[in-house]
From TrEMBL:
<dbReference type="InterPro" id="IPR050490">
    <property type="entry name" value="Bact_solute-bd_prot1"/>
</dbReference>
<protein>
    <submittedName>
        <fullName>Carbohydrate ABC transporter substrate-binding protein</fullName>
    </submittedName>
</protein>
<dbReference type="Pfam" id="PF01547">
    <property type="entry name" value="SBP_bac_1"/>
</dbReference>
<dbReference type="InterPro" id="IPR006059">
    <property type="entry name" value="SBP"/>
</dbReference>
<keyword id="KW-0732">Signal</keyword>
<keyword id="KW-0813">Transport</keyword>
<comment type="similarity">
    <text>Belongs to the bacterial solute-binding protein 1 family.</text>
</comment>
<feature type="signal peptide">
    <location>
        <begin position="1"/>
        <end position="37"/>
    </location>
</feature>
Amino acid sequence: MRRSPDNRTPVPRTRGAARAAAAVVAGVLAVSLTACGGGDDDGDEDAKGGGTGDTGTTVTLPKLDGANLSVAAVWTGAEQANFKKVLAEFEKRTGAKVTFVPAQDPIINFLGSKIAGGAPPDVALLPQPGAIKQAVDKKWAKPLGAEAQAELAKNYSQGWQDIGTVDGKPYGVYYKAANKSLIWYNAQVFENAGASEPKTWDELLTTAQTVYDSGVTPFSVGGADGWTLTDWFENIYLSQAGPEKYDQLAAHEIKWTDPSVKEALTTLAEIWGKKDYVAGGARGALQTEFPESVTQTFTGGDQPKAAMVYEGDFVQVNIGETKAKVGTDAKVFPFPAVGDTAPVVSGGDAAVILKDSKAAQALVTFLASPDAAGIQAKLGGYLSPNKNVPNSAYPNAVQQKMAEALIGAGDDFRFDMSDQAPQAFGGTPGKGEWKALQDFLKDPKDVAGTQQRLEADAAAAYGN
């Protein structure tokens, strides 16, 4: 383990087997994902799952009759609705009343305004390790109690425990995780075009051209949300530059003017800069929010606005808003290898206590248990890093294989790079990396200028 120069949260470094583990995970995905249907599996997954727990009650919670709690997160739509069902189970078991508070990005700013107004939520779901560190530095966050720590130790690998730890104390429970190394595609478009699933970047470019020649735009990009663009870059960079460089850039131990960044941006421009490869062109993509980038790929039958959309397992939530069926109409393949090994990038949201109380500690203890994660797992569009969630809890074989791959990576995963950065650089709309890559989408020829802007913003945010 290591800490970055500004003493942010430690993140897992490469162990000797990191590349091998990444290759194994990518291999599992490549073999299994697109072969799976959208319905329940045949039952054999119970024995092979990402977890070993059962679906019953595994955690003891106190009686909290009369207690009132509020939980803040940036989740909307189906994701928010599904989480509320988890909160409803907590209410049922404890007698507490829990209110969900919709938050805005960046959530640290949202929380700051709530705290300044004297009304902070009891618990917040923070999407960046850097945000956890900020909450600790501002003395907002409260350490996890003994019960929550016990659930964390029992149910999570050391790597997932470490990224919720600041200065040796556990503050965050990663309730939700994401496999962010996936490309989803419209199966009918691929079939009509005679396109095949690529395993390498060059094969992806060939597949894109095949789709384009069939009369369908290859890619849908949600450029209005800058975080989707950072995810594109991170997958290319991790695969092309390798995990050691990835760790160094994540910690700003190397500059964004490094030749490895130039190479990754140049590679990214092979798609973003290709005429008519992105739905709506750069202007249209920059006005397309993430949910629309998904739905426009799976509406319109075999003539959608685009054939493919890159993003994580959570894409399934938005596919669910269309008539497409995951595993049949909507299929998925691992992000292709740009270098020697296909990338495996993860993200997540951690529950952090802001108002220390028996009820808040009990809620986070519940969220650290397989009981809570198992409820949301069954609803789809969700992955848990909790290793004791049974694989059978996931609603279809596609989701089960994703969970199996995530848990199978153990500690040898790479967390989303922008989420590791100070929020001013990696997590603020209209600023830092989000803005620089939106500008790059608009002008993919400006590699050098993009590098310079990224480095200037990073240096200011990291303080070095």
